[in-house]
Amino acid sequence: MSSRVGVVQFPGTNCEFDVVEAVTALGGQGELVWHGDSVLPQVDAIVVPGGFAHGDYLRPGAIAQFSPIMNAVKEFANSGGPVVGICNGFQILTETGLLPGALQKNSGLKFLCQPAQLRVETTESVLTRSAEVGQILSVPINHFEGNFTCSEETLAELRDQDRIVVTYVDNPNGSMGDIAGVCNEGRNVVGLMPHPERASNALLGSTDGNIMFSSLLEAAISASV
Question: Which end of the chain is less crowded, N or C, counting CB atoms within 10 A of the terminal residue's CB?
Answer without folding.
Answer: C
